[in-house]
Every structure is written in C-alpha cells, then in structure tokens.
Batch of 3 targets.
Target 1
Amino acid sequence: YEHGRGHAHNHAAGDTDRPVGFGRLQRKEDPRFVRGQGNYTDDVVLPGMLHGAILRSPVAHARIVSIDVSEALARPGVRAVLTGKDLEPLKLAWIPTLSYDVQAVLATDKVRFQGQEVAFVIADDRYAARDALESIDVEYDILPPLVDARHALDADAPLIRDDLEGRTDNHIQDWECGDKAATDAVFAKAEVVVTQEVVYPRVHPAPMETCGAVADFNPVSGDLTLYETSQAPHAHRTVIAMVSGIPEHKIHLISPDIGGGFGNKVGIYPGYVLAIVGSIVTGHPVKWMEDRSENLMSTSFARDYIMQGEIAATRDGKLLGLRADVLADHGAFNGVAQPTKFPAGFFNLFPGSYTWEAVHGKVTSVYTNKAPGGVAYACSFRVTEAVYFVERMIDRLAIELDMDPAELRLKNFIPASAFPYDNKAGFEYDSGEYEKTMRHAMKLIGYDELRREQQEKRTRGELMGIGISFFTEGVGAGPRKHMDILGLGMADGAELRIHPTGKAVVRISVQTQGQAHETTFAQIVAEEIGIPPEDIEVVHGDTDRTPFGLGTYGSRSTPVSGAAVALVTRKVRDKARLIAAAMLETRPEDLEWEKGRWFVKGDPSAGKTIQEIALAAHGTMQLPDGVDGNLDAEVTYDPPNLTYPYGAYFCVTDIDKDTGKVTVRRFLAVDDCGTRINPMVIEGQVHGGLTDGIGMALMEIIEFDSDGNNLGGSFMDYLIPTAMEVPDWETGFTVTPSPHHPIGAKGIGESATVGSPAAIVNSVIDALRPLGVTAMDMPCTPARVWDAMQGHAKAP
Ligand code: MCN
Ligand code: CUN
C-alpha cells in the first residue's frame, strides 16, 4: 500500500551504487515550471507579430444574410478582416475533420452552433483585434435550433447539414458490436432482466491553458513555422500540409510546453488555420489564443452519450447478457477524434470486466446545433462512457437482486486463467487478475466495516453511501493494421543517440502536456541501458527534431512510444555488446549484461561500461562488423494489441439530509497498469483523474437552453472541482504486466477519469437507497440530489 512518500529506487546523483531506472524520480520538468520558466504558446513573441481574434456566432442556427466588415477595417490598428467568402477561393472555408466530415473554418452559408467562427480580425495587438469584433455587422436570419439529440431524427427536425449534398436528415452513422441474435436468445431465457437509462452528459476537458497558435509564414522561402497547442505535432503537420497545400517539408511545427491537454488539444481548430492564413495574407507572424469562454463554447466537448441499457441475469446473480443502445450527440460537425474504423471509439469495452454469454452494443450518432468535438477529456476513446455504463448497470442489477455489489462483481469477473480474453465485442484483453485486485481493494478500504457503519447510520436516518467501480480500459492505439487517423497508421518512432561521453538524447514522437515524459521516458532508457536518467535528455514536441509518430492521447504514450523507447535502447545495447566484445577481445556471446555494463561471463571484473563503450564507438579502434561509428539507433513501434489496465475503485459519500450536498469522504483507487515506471508520476496521474471524476460526477455539465444558448460558457457556470471538494486520495496497486509490451507496462493517464465517476454516482445512489432511489444521472448537484430525495427524480 503506497502512501505517496518515496524511498526505494530513488536515484540520487553521484550515488552510482543505487539502482538506475524505474522508481520515484523527481520530475525533471518541474524546476522550470515552479520557477515560472515554462514556455507556452502564448509566451512565443516574434518580431512584427500581429494578433488575431475571432468573431463568433451569438446564435445556434441561422442563415447568414450579410457580413459588413468595413467599419472594423477602418479601426486603428486593424490590418485585415477575413470572412468565409475570403477563404472560399483558397479552398479553406471548410476543412476535413478527424472523422471524414468537413467543418467550417469561417461560416459561409449558415452558423450551426453558438460560438461558431464567423470572421477573423488581425490587428497590431490583442486589444485592437478584440475591439474591432464589435464593429463587424452580421445580419442573421434565425432558424429553429435542434438542441435535444432525442429529436434529431424526428421527421420535422430542422436540417442542420444542408451543406452536404443529398442530405435530408441529421443522422450521421450507425455502429454495432457483439452478437444481436445470441443476445436476444440469452434475454429470452433469463430469470431477471433490468432496464436502465444511463446518461453521460456533455462535459469539457477545460485545461488550464486554452488553445492557440502562432503562425509565421516566410513568403521568400515558403517555410511555415507553426507554434501550436498540439498533443500530436506530427499528425497536425501532415493534416495542415494536406489542407493548406503547403508542402510538408516546408512546415516546422513546434508544440512548446502545454498547460494541460486532456484531449482538448488533439483536434485541428479553425483558429489554427486562421492564424496561418492571417500570416500569409499580412506577411507577419500572427498569434491566436482563445479565451476561456471560447474554449468552453467551441473547442472539443466530450461525452454526450444517452445510453439505454438492459441486463439479463439469473436470480442468484450470474450475469448472462448485456445490451447497450446509445444515442450519441456529435454536435454540428462530426469532428470526433478516433481511429477511422471505430466511429464509436472503443465503446467495444462496454462488457467491462465480466463474463457474459452474449452482448450487443449499438451506437447511433446524430448532428445537433452544438459545438463539434467528441471523445476528448481523458476518455480512452469512449471507454469512459462504456465503463460508466456497465458499472452503473451492474449496480442497478445488484439493487434488483438485493445483492451486495462487491459480491455480484466477484461472482462474475473474468478469471485470471481466461486471459488473453475475447470480450465478445471485438477486443482481446491482454492480462488481468481482477479478483486479486478487487480483494486487495476491499481489504484496504475495510469494506465489511464500512457496510456495518452504513447499517448503523441508516438506523439513525443518516445518508451514507459506498460505491464501487471496477473498470477495464483498452489503451495504446493501436495496431496499425486496424487503427489509423485520417489514414495515418497509429505507430510511433523513437531515436536514441549516445554521445561520446556517454550522455544520451532520446527523441520521441509523443507530446507531454503534464504527464512527465521528460522524466519517465529517460527512466525507460536508464532502466534498459544503465545510464543515469539525469544524463538522458528527452526531446519532443518539435517535428524537425523528432521522428514521426501519432502523438499523445488515449494513454498511448507508454504502450506505444514507451515500447519504442525500450526497443531502441535494446538495439543500442546490442550494438554496444559487439563493441565491448571487440574491446575485451572476446566473442559477443561470451558477454553478459548487468545494468550499465557488459562483462565476460564468469569474470565480472573484465567488463566495459556503456560510457566506455560509447567513447570507443567514436574513437580510433577498429570497429566490428555491423557497427559504423556510433551507438545510435532508431525504431518504429507498431503495437500488436492494446494494453488493458484496470482498477478497483471505492467511494464513500455522506449526503446532507437538509441540503442534498454530497461530500466524498473517502476514495480509494487500486490500479493495475502493469509494470510501474515512476510510482510518483502514476499517483499524480491518478490523483488528477480522480479529481476529474469528482468534477463530472458532482458538478460539471455543459447544458443548452431551448434556443441553443450554451449555459456552461464560463467557470462561473461550468464548475470544476477545487481542493475543497476532494478528499485525501487513497491509492493502492497490483502489478499484472502486459504480456506483449517490451517492459510489461500498460497506460495509466486516463484510468482514474475513466473509472471514478461510476464509483461516485453508485455511492450517491447507494446513500439514497433507503429513500427508494435506484438511479440518478450526473452531475449529482445538491439540487438534483434534493429532487431525488423528494421522489421527483426522473423515472428510471
Ligand atoms: N507511467 C508509468 N508507468 C506506467 C504507465 C505510465 O510511470 N505503467 C507514466 C508514464 O511514463 C507517463 C505517465 O505515467 O509519464 C502517463 O503515461 P500514459 O499512461 O502512457 O499516458 P500518456 O502519457 O499517453 O498521457 C495521455 C493521457 C491522456 S490521453 C489524457 S487525456 C491526460 C492524461 O494523460 N491528459 C493529461 N493525463 C494528463 N495529465 C496531465 N498533467 N495533463 C494532461 O493534459
Ligand atoms: Cu480522449 S482525451 Mo486523451 O485521449 O488526450
């Protein structure tokens, strides 16, 4: 049971006897952050730089009758004003989305959501640009908005995408997984069937730093230098090359420090394109940074899944069948970021951690007059929705059967012996010891004791809840043959260079946004080759200095890029062996590796350290065959499968009888992400994700009124948790390595966001059980809880 205080494996400089590699190494990036020396996109200032601002639609759905920019253009400091009509001849009024739809950069025909981009002002400074927005005169012909996805397919629903040829309705796509006939058969014979609607509302990643870009186009050389808040610099560069027509080798994309991404920085936004066009048009560098309201209203919402569930079981609690029928609200443009063949992301994970006779899942996506986006917010590509769904369904069944929810889960877990396990919805889980992890968590939280306490409190009329969530994620997209984004296969490159003095540089294609890659990727190299982590520089976020790869999201950095780094280091180690053999005048097969050195089998005193070997590689000695003058290597890693981290989460809540206020008293997260590289970083990831979970479960939601006005457009309306709402997190772990990952590691970056909301909501429902409550939708705000307590809750 880790308490968060480090000791073992902590490498101290100059203390070479201590192990080098995995352990609680302090974050290498923190000295610059805690001194205020980070370098974010908005810190980039170039000579002659101008500033852009976007005019956004005040309404959700309207035809544009006219746009008059003359007054804005006449204002002091204004250099240019762009509208959709100006972009049309450049073929940039519309750009492709990550889901093979198109999205307007600046509206030409209609506006389709409140906050949509309508015009772009470029001025000498930020203030002049913003002020000029007020002088633009747009005449709108208001159309009825479509706000409720449940009515998107009604015959009389307003048609949103009349720009798409031949389109007559708001339907985007249907997707299915599992076996419908087999599931129907299982339901027909089941003793118990429970149905439940489970809604995962629209939320927003809301990173501390909003999105932005600085574009610098050089008209003489034709080079574009683009600083951007991007979680995937290489993929962004390729897409920008395709969209803009600027040759890819002329584009240098730099993603400097990022103040949190959480999926918000995966997409390509109109503002990025506008900064580029602005720079080409004005001949100056142009900066665009969105403000908080723009971020919340226009860039990348998350979730918005309305899920109808049905669960079939025997009376004594054996799970038989599961159905999910989902209505997905994708907003005005289908811009969800996910592998091409997975239009519902990895919702295939909805059977969860249990054995079923049959399952069937179906997702229908529709357009509405809301901001595009989708996925995003530590989602593992819709695993968040899948986990929340199945974990709510399991608890709903437990209520029906009057069975303890821990016992129901224990009775139905996939047994350790069944891995690799086909989950009947198309995915093969790599490894897991669910029962062991669950029992460990029950012991740590003192489950039986908590149930006794709850019993006693209930006799006094107090509302205490205990909620459980046991989740399985699938992260590390992905095997290239099944997974691509816009045709780009999801693999990652890594390059390792060992300098003559034994210091190293590792270049990776993923992008840290706070996950500490500069530390943990150095630790992977250190573990594999024995060079201390402080002697290893991690380079990322710059397309000119790193190998191609698809970037950071879906917790894929460790599963994919981490594997690439382990393998490239092993390649260097093998090369070092050849040189060491030449140096020691022996055969490579006669050498043995210990961390940091090759030595002669049976004679440990005869050996060469990696630093000695590096110098020799660059020296005057006759190099053996297969070595051509350095120790450097590069690889591209194509993962054979996803990795499947999992966890057992327990949440204890107290509810104030008089106000409906929920307090999370305790929260225990026991995670299994296979081999642990840096337990301190892992705990940081888990603490952050649990805080996200409290936010979504108790306070976060982006709602719309019937006119399509966004009601969550500021931090006054979109509440996010602070230190006041979170308990002292309790964490624990088990270690079940991934059998196919070179170091056995699975991802952890999204686990807690994925796993925690169900534990919290299940806990709230559990607390309200004595009042007859069996279901409740997020966020469990005091008002909603109060309604549920009065029996006004929406019927299940
Ligand atoms: N790690 C480890 N041992 C493991 C697995 C991971 O020590 N077995 C470490 C890694 O080395 C890495 C960190 O944990 O330093 C996260 O690794 P990983 O699980 O591979 O996730 P990614 O690095 O790919 O991060 C992406 C993930 C996603 S998709 C979102 S969304 C999210 C998250 O990370 N956004 C974040 N965590 C975030 N944390 C911060 N601070 N900021 C964000 O924007
Ligand atoms: Cu889906 S949020 Mo993260 O994958 O960047």
Target 2
Amino acid sequence: MHTGRHFLQIPGPTNVPDRVLRAIDMPTIDHRGPEFGRLGLEVIEGCKAVFRTGNPVIIYPSSGTGAWEAAILNTLSPGDRVLVAETGHFATLWGRMAAKLKLEVETIPGDWRHGADPGEIGARLAEDRGHVIKAVMVVHNETSTGVTSRIPDIRRAIDAARHPALFLVDTISSLGSIDYRHDEWGVDVTVGGSQKGLMLPPGLGFNAVSDKALAAARGNSSRRSYWDWHEIIAANADGYWPYTPATNLLYGLRESLAMLQEEGMDSVFARHDRHAAATRAAIRAWELEILCVDPYAYSSALTAVVMPEGHDADRYREVVLNKFDMSLGTGLAKLKGCVFRIGHLGHFNDLMLMGTLAGVEMGFALAGVPYRKGGVGAAMAVLEHTVPPGKHHM
Ligand code: PLP
C-alpha cells in the first residue's frame, strides 16, 4: 500500500500533466463533424511547429512501432538496401523490422555507448557508387542507452558523399525534449510517438515527411494500405482521417502542444538540459558510471547508470519500486541487469528531479549497492547554480 503519487521515472511513457488528462476527459465527438475538423486542423498545424516542418505530419492511432513501419512501407520496397546505425536496442529493433519487411539491412555496428558516427556513415555511402543503399536509418535519442546522435552532421555526411539515400530518423524519445528540426536538418521521414516529450499517454504515432519522401512514396507500389500516407494527407486537408482517429488522444495532443508553445521550445530544451546535467552530477558524486561515454552525446531525456560489478540492476529497481513506489527504466536486451535508466523527460520540474534522485540514492543503501553518499546534494548544487529557464510549473 503506497500513499501519495507514484514516481514514473522510466524514459517513457512519461507523467501526463493534469491539464492534458482533463483535456482527454471529454465526450467523444463525431469524427466526421465540423467540430472534429477544427480539432484535426489545429493539431496537425501544432505538430508541424514541434517537428519544425512546413510539410505534412501524419498522425496515426498507433504506437511508435507503427510509425516506424509506416516510414519504411511508404518509402521503401522489398529488396531495397538500408543502412542502420546500431546505437542500441531501438536501432536494432528498427533494423530487425526492416528485415522482416524484406529489406536488405546493412548495419554499422556500435558499442551502445556512442552515437552514430557521421564519418562512418559518409564513408560507407561514398563507397556505394551504384547507389544501392536507399535509406539511412538513425535513432536520434537511443532510449535504451541515453545516447544521442548528431543528426545535422549525419545529413552533412550524406550530402558530402553526394548520395541520394533517404534519411529516416527516429525521434520518439527526443521530440519535445531535445532540439530537433525536421526541415532544417534535411530529414526525409521523422518518426515520433506520443508518450514521451509530448506528455501524452501512449497511442499516437507520427511521421513528418519531406517532399523527397513524398515523391518516393508516390513511386513506391509496395504493399500497404492502413499506413499509406496519401489518403491520410488528402483527408487531413480538411482536418479529417480516412478512418476513425483517436479522438480523445487528439484532445490531449491539442493541450500538450499548447503547453509546449506556452513554455517555448527553447525553454523546454533548456529545462531538460539542466535536469540531465544535475542527474549526471549526482551519478558522478555517487561514484557510479554513466553508460554514455561521449559528453557530446549525453541525452537530456534520460540517463543510463551502469551498476557496479556483481549487482543486478533489476533487483535494485525492484527494491526502489517496492519501497518508494518509483519506476525506473530497466536495462534492455544485452544491458539487462547491467544498467538502470532514469527518465527526466516530459512533464518534469526541479522538485520531481530531486524526489527521483533521493529515491535512487536511498535505494542504493537499501539494496546494498556500493556508492558514495552525496549525489542528491551534488544535483541540488547544479540546480542552485543554474538559472531555471523561465517558468515551467505548467
Ligand atoms: N524508438 C524509440 C527510440 C523508443 O524509445 C521506442 C519506445 O520506447 C520505440 C521506438 C518503440 O515505440 P513504441 O513502444 O511506442 O512502439
């Protein structure tokens, strides 16, 4: 029996603000009526501002995995070769999906502690003189590791190789938390999800698409129906969908987009940067290891902590859950038991961070994990010495 609020500190789904919950708690309306049309147009426009694009953003009633599949099925055909940067578990899963959809997947191996290497991607593309590679697939923020990849540098590498491959980017755990610019960075398909920086429950998937991606989709007759962009984009012109959309989640989306806009995207990113810096200060003070080894690639959405040798991260997480009613992220795939992840993204503030870090630190003592005291104090010092980016008690 726990009292007070559960601490949901996994790197998504994230805490849904009360404002968003209240917006969702409305009568479901006629999805072909005039009120819905206005809602549809409003959320589509609002999404464009968050993805930083003037092009269509397609919203699916789906998880992020569905939006991954939509990105592949619309632009690529069986037999096409794709280049996947193995940054962690989610990049691996996206590549595995491409293989299931009968694409030829070429992986650039990674150690799950660095971001995708623009130099390696550029070199591989430069070798591919026959332009056999049809797409480069990169996860912007690897949720399994807390490592980000430099999307603008990868774009420059593709351009320097004079390669026509499409550039597909997963921004599921970075959108609305870490700076991202679909148009400016020359991304062809950006994949998003509702349950992280957008502060919504799970259930919406997004594709932001470039003109080049739209042209590839028009020329691509590979099998798809539900995921096909064109019918959706046509219906979206008046704010509708060709099928029954997730009406109440779209009410929530309208509210969460308003919250992001009110705070200002730059303030949102600065808030996440500051909480991530404070989290890293705590980890260093505890004399524990951050999984990400490249300071330029530190994620502002989550931080993965390496457990000391001989200690199981999941047993530790279980102690924290039972004792403090806080969920921390598990280690995924080969990181199972070796790391736990602290989510500091979405609807979050200084005191939520301090509560989270206090639970983490108290959990070490209870679970018998060796650590040095003082992480919470170190994080507090970072917060005290950095100015909060405007008001963020939304
Ligand atoms: N890509 C990334 C980076 C993710 O973090 C996730 C989920 O956590 C996914 C893809 C898969 O999304 P979903 O679980 O919503 O299908």
Target 3
Amino acid sequence: MNVENYIRQTLKDHKIHLTLLDPEEQRPEEAVLIAKEAVSGGTDGIMLGGSTTDSAELDATAKALKENVDVPIILFPGNISGVSQYADAIFFMSLLNSSNPYWITGAQALGAPIIKKMGIETISMGYLVVEPGGTVGWVGDAKLIPRIKPDLAAAYAIAAEFMGMKLLYLEAGSGANQHIPEKMIQSVKKSTGSIVIVGGGIRTGEDAANVAAAGADILVTGTIVEKSSNIKDKIKELVDGIRSAKD
Ligand code: 1GP
C-alpha cells in the first residue's frame, strides 16, 4: 500500500480523520482494540508516536496493528527512536519553528539511513508548533507561533512548500485546551497547495467541523480516545463533524 496515494485518493472523496496512539499508553493488544473501535467509528488511519518512545514497545504495537487493522499505520516520530519496520509509512517531519537544529535536521539525518534500509515509505512534512504547544513544544525547543499571528504560520507553510514538503502539520500540542485557531488554518490553506494537517485539542464534533471548515484536510485526535468510554461513538461524532463541514 502506498500511503501517500491512499491519502490523496481519500481526500478526493472526503477529509481525513487520523487516530493518534502513543505506544507507551497501552499494551499492543489494547492498542488493537482501540484501533478497531476507531476504524468502526470511521477513522481513516492510525498514527503511532509520542514524545518519548521505547523502540521495543513501538515495534510490538506497530506489528500487532499491522496484523489486525485494515487502515494504514503511520509513524509520527518524536525522536529517532520512533522508527519501526512494521509501519506502512512514516511522516518524515521537520519541526520548522524549533530553535534547536537537532529537531529541524539533526534527528532526521540520524534516522534517515535506518529508514532507508528498512524501506519504509517516507512522507515529507513540515511541522509547526503553535501556542500553547504542550509537551512537544517544550521538548522540541519550539519558538511557539502566537495564536494571534496567522501570517507567521502561513509564512512557514509557504517556505515548507518551497522546500518540497508535501504536508504541513499545525500542532497546538496534545491535550491543548483549544485547537488551532480557525483564522490560522484558513491563512495557511489559502497560502499553499500543501495538504494541511491539524491536531491538538480537538475534542468534539463541533470542534472537528470548525477545523475542517476552516480548511484542514486531515484532522488528528489523540487524547480523546484515552478519555472516552465509547471510542467508536466518539470517533463517529468527530468523523460526522468533519464530513458535515463545507469549505
Ligand atoms: C498530538 O495533535 C495531536 O500531536 C493530538 O492532540 O491529544 O489533543 O488530540 P490531542
């Protein structure tokens, strides 16, 4: 399966929802149960990653998911330990607004040879961390984009497109109390032809509808599955919100 093609083909039909799982948060069998529920609720793929990752846990979870779930398994690495041969693809990402070159090109250079050897599909992605930024903002030494400065996000998005990155991820930080402002999403979407991913703080169908209507092509939710007693219904609420949006 070529995951980038899957994303582009799916987007011709509908905007995408991805469920983010942190392999440290549950055992592989539980991750499979959660992922199956999410798929039955309408999620289009599973992202796997976290700010700290144990490679053995990641491998076990990626393998179990690949064997048991029919949607793509995409790595969302928080560092060089976030690589597994069992995933379908990796978001090969650069934290564009980090003040530390390690997170812009350093970790990427250290991880690239092993990724090449494993033959995992890479999908190039610019990653921008916006206020409040959460753990990833702190770990990634991000010079956080102020929420009231959509033009700054757009400037980075244009630069990312000029550098050949195919996707642009606007991240508010996992567990953020507010998702990325709609004005910022609109501004980024208007400025580039890149596929725009938005994550952090999306919790309700209404949030999802607003983010999708502002121009996000792909919406990511993580925290919500950890907090929900009925994962299928919660994901369905988000997916219904996304599909109801007109942009
Ligand atoms: C984190 O944007 C994602 O990278 C998901 O955020 O946990 O707030 O859904 P939440």
